[in-house]
C-alpha cells in the first residue's frame, strides 16, 4: 500500500504545510502527496493510505468524500460549521460511517459528527507533536506573526526589536518550495524565539509544542481555535479594524481594557504528556491499518 500525505495546490498558507510536516513524522515513508481540495477526483490506481489531518476544505464538494482507492486516516480532522451542509449530507455521513471512528481536531467537530450517529474521539492537533527544543536562545527575539500593530496596543518592551512575520505566501509557489519555507519558519522560531505573539493557530500550536512561550490574539468564540484553551493558551480578543480613526480608538480600548489582562511574559507549556498521548493514538490507528 502506498502512503500519502496532503498537499495544497494553489493555497498560500504556511500553516497548511506545517500540518503536513507534522503528519510526516508518523509515516515510515511518503510515496505520494494528494491535493486536499481535489480528493474527490483523485482516483488511485493502487490502494493509497492518506493521513487526512487538518481543515476540510476550501472546496468541500471537490474534496470529500475522497475517490476510490484512497484509504483515509481521519485523525485531527476539522470541519468548519459553515461547511456543515456538505459534510453532514447523506453521502458524506455514509462515508464517515464506513471509516469511523473519526479523530477530530476540536470538540465541536466531534460533537456535531456524534450527533449524526458517527463515532468520534478528540485528538487535538498533530502540530502539537513537534519535538521540544533543547534550550531557549540566550538572546531570544519576539516574533509578531500576522499581527497588525495598528489594531493592537503592544507594550514598548514587547514591541522594541520585534520581528514581523507572515504565514501568507504566494499561492503560485510549488509545493516543494512551500514545504521548504514551512521547515525554515519552524526552525527560525525554534532557534531564535523567546516569545511568539500570533493570530495564527498553526503558529501557536507548533511553537507551544517546541517549548516557546505564546501569546495568542483572536476570537475566543471561534471553535476552530478552541484547542488553544484546552492546552492552556488563553485567547485574547483581537480583530482587524479599518480606517485610521477607528484603529486609533480600538488601540486605545485595547490599551486600557485588554493589555493589563495579557501576560506578555508567559511561561512555556509542558506538553510532553499530551504529545505522547496524541502520538500513541495515531500510531495505534496506523498499526491497525498495517503501517508500522
Task: Characterise this structure.
With 292 residues, the chain is of the alpha/beta class. The chain has helices at residues 14-24, 60-63, 84-87, 90-99, 107-115, 156-159, 175-192, 201-209, 227-231, 244-258, 272-288, and strands spanning 2-7, 32-35, 48-51, 54-56, 70-73, 77-79, 102-104, 120-122, 141-145, 163-165, 193-198, 214-218, 235-237. It has eleven helices and 13 strands. The mean pLDDT is 95. The strands form four sheets. Strands 10-9-11-12-13 form a five-stranded parallel beta sheet. The longest helix has 18 residues, at 175-192.
What is the element layout, followed by pairings?
Layout: E1 2-7, H1 14-24, E2 32-35, E3 48-51, E4 54-56, H2 60-63, E5 70-73, E6 77-79, H3 84-87, H4 90-99, E7 102-104, H5 107-115, E8 120-122, E9 141-145, H6 156-159, E10 163-165, H7 175-192, E11 193-198, H8 201-209, E12 214-218, H9 227-231, E13 235-237, H10 244-258, H11 272-288
Parallel strand pairs: 1-2, 1-3, 3-5, 4-6, 7-8, 9-10, 9-11, 11-12, 12-13
Helix pairs in contact: 1-7, 1-8
CATH topology of the largest domain: Rossmann fold
Q: Report the total helices.
A: 11
Distance between the termini: 12 Å
Stretches with pLDDT under 50, minimum 5 residues: none
Strand content: 15-25%
Structure class: alpha/beta
Q: Can you give the helix content as a percent range?
A: 25-40%
Strand order of the largest sheet: 10-9-11-12-13
Number of strands: 13
Task: Sketch the major β-sheet.
Answer: 5 strands, parallel
Could you name the key traits of this structure?
Rossmann fold; alpha/beta; 2 domains
